[in-house]
User: Fold these one by one.
Assistant:
Number 1:
Amino acid sequence: MENNCIFCKIVAGQTGTELVYQDEQVTVFHDREPAAPVHLLIVPNRHVTSLNEISATDRDWLVQVMLVAGQIARQMNVHESGFRLLTNTGADAGQSVYHLHFHLLGGTQLNRLGWRGGGWPGN
Ligand code: AMP
């Protein structure tokens, strides 16, 4: 647990944020500023700042992120219509929370590169 990390606090159940899923390795909750009708965040319980910080020892929970993404997509009923899993790394990607997280987006036609600069609900 990293001091003052909002996602560490959510993982620890200290914020009152509704958890969609949690196991020993990952936690899933709704993004508070959804960029699509379905917009969830899948985060490792362990504090890792970004993909820049991972190594082969993180293999287990990284695989778990993928498995849980498939499961949550089905639960949210976007598995057939389609969905996107993405992670922003560093300034150029617009990373704003430095606890690694994967956005699961779906429920509408997504623009090709991500959501900034286009997509739902605006421009
Ligand atoms: P990124 O810009 O890729 O770092 O994504 C950070 C995401 O976290 C943004 O989409 C925010 O809306 C979301 N976010 C920040 N704080 C919270 C919070 N307390 N609960 C839910 N989502 C959050």
Number 2:
Amino acid sequence: MIVILKKNAQPQQVELFDAWLHNMGLETHKSIGANHTIIGLVGDTSRVDMESILALDIVEAVRRIQEPYKNANRKFHEEDTVITLSNGAKIGGGHFMVMAGPCSVETEEQIISVARSVKAAGATVLRGGAFKPRTSPYAFQGLQGEGIKLLLEAKAETGLPIVTEIMDAKHLPLFEDVDIIQVGARNMQNFELLRELGRTDKTILLKRGLANTIKELLMSAEYICAGGNEKIILCERGIRTYETATRNTLDLSAVPVLHEITHLPVVIDPSHATGNSAYVPSMAVAAAACGADGIMIEVHNDPMHALCDGAQSLTPAQFDTLAKKIFAVREVAMS
Ligand code: PEP
Ligand code: MN
């Protein structure tokens, strides 16, 4: 349920109203927009009498929200969420963010050289996996804690904030200086992990599961919001369909759909979506054209010898060419 307040509502009256709602066992979420202040109610609102709320002086309108996601719902929060990182880079509300780097952190030289190249090409965030969710337990699992140390070195060297995946909440202390914590596709519905992340103040990059709907993605975001953390970036990275020509099928329509129903920023990952470096540029450009708030691309200094996902990784030179196109297309798309 949302309560839209009148423009002239006095702060003391709003506070009293808020306290009254809390007394009824409801959580409230206040969103102050350019046009309205909206109070979103979370909890069992079935016994809330809409008529008596509407009768209050400060209330303009009351509406029930049908969707099961509340905090992530645009009806709760009309304006786009804008997230700002340590280097000043922003995402959401018209700000575009390019994240790039290798699938996995492999060596100090590798991560620092890739970080330097992607920064020179215009990326504002460095990606790199330290904990890798691999299909086979015998495949390279990532450098783990050591990988995070190397990412932090690359951050100190280049000033680029870093994004890296968490697989278990027990590793959270290692993520203290990580700017964006990624929840990978395979963990999108690891609800305990989502709850833990909801209790942090970290920016979370939440990837859509391999076979999950947009609604399920938003329900996972809701788990994080419910703990009080709304710094969430949603990521479409391809879903599993009957098509086998690409690693997954990139659902670009998720961008306009999500923009309509949520205030959270949306990033496209064309690398995991296609699984093939030959297809990454066209899908990356398409993502910029359809209004994505950001893009995440795998870049490796030597894709042929990458320990993970080499086939979908661009070389720094390919990324440099692509980044120019992405920025140009983004400008046209937003004009
Ligand atoms: C990754 O970003 O390297 C990764 C494993 O992504 P996903 O969870 O989308 O497969
Ligand atoms: Mn990868």
